[in-house]
Design a protein that fits this description.
The complex is a heterodimer of chains A (about 110) and B (about 110). With about 110 residues, chain A is mainly β. Chain A contains no helices and 11 strands. Helices cover about 0% and strands about 55% of the residues of chain A. Chain B has about 110 residues and is mainly beta. Chain B is built from no helices and 11 strands. In chain B, strand 9 and strand 10 form a beta hairpin. The chains are: A mainly beta (about 110), B mainly beta (about 110).
């Protein structure tokens, strides 16, 4: 579990501000993911990345930007935060295992937009 | 895209009884179905998974069954214990890249 970390763990920001959530993994997993978790919606994929410099949209990408210049880091940026982006954000990573992709989650970041 | 539905949303059982959580999926291309357990304030953790070429898998008190024809899969927990209390999520994986999660089941085991 210590192989994937997120920072900050808690963040309060104001509407309209830019905020970046960090994710770092030490396993050299090729895939990384960002999810948001909201009551009644479970986990919804925001963006994912198959490798450095390769990213793609998930189910709910609007209002978010990602980058992946290094394999181990996958930051998520909210360019202009809105109250609807108040949520718990989980980063995850995975690598090929017999053709399937088991995911390992970070500890989460609780973001509140006021 | 894939649509995963999970039932029930809440489940209470007496300690020692069995618990069953059911999920359905829509995309016949899905071929990997993991189950995650999330304790309060913690991260989701994989507890068991099943591939599409297998109908059932068991790990001690936990089992998962898959019916590809009907597009549903279920988690079975036997001899439940208070430490089984958590939120459980199912997921389906139609490609190598994306997972689609159910909305979760909050399981409470009453001592």
């Amino acid at each position: 579990d210590a192989g994937i970390t997120q920072s900050p763990r808690y963040k309060i920001t104001e509407t309209g501000r830019q905020v970046t959530l960090m994710c770092h993994q030490t396993w050299s997993h090729s895939y990384m993911f960002w999810y948001r978790q909201d009551l009644g919606h479970g986990l919804r994929l925001i963006y994912y990345s198959a490798a450095a410099d390769i990213t793609d949209k998930g189910e709910v990408p609007d209002g978010y930007v990602v980058s992946r210049s290094k394999t181990e880091n996958f930051p998520l940026t909210l360019e202009s935060a809105t109250r609807s982006q108040t949520s718990v954000y989980f980063c995850a990573s995975s690598d090929r295992l017999a053709g399937f992709y088991e995911q390992y989650f970070g500890p989460g970041t609780r973001l509140t937009v006021t | 895209g894939e649509n995963v539905e999970q039932h029930p949303s809440t489940l209470s059982v007496q300690e020692g009884d069995s618990a069953v959580i059911k999920c359905t999926y829509s995309d016949s291309a899905s071929n990997y179905f993991p189950w995650y357990k999330q304790e309060l304030g913690k991260r989701p953790q994989l507890i068991i998974d099943i591939r599409s070429n297998v109908g059932e898998k068991k790990d001690q008190r936990i089992a998962v069954t898959l019916n590809k024809t009907a597009k549903h899969f279920s988690l079975h927990i036997t001899e439940t214990q208070p430490e089984d209390s958590a939120v459980y999520f199912c997921a389906a994986n139609p490609t190598g890249n994306q997972f689609y999660f159910g909305t979760g089941t909050s399981l409470t085991v009453i001592p």
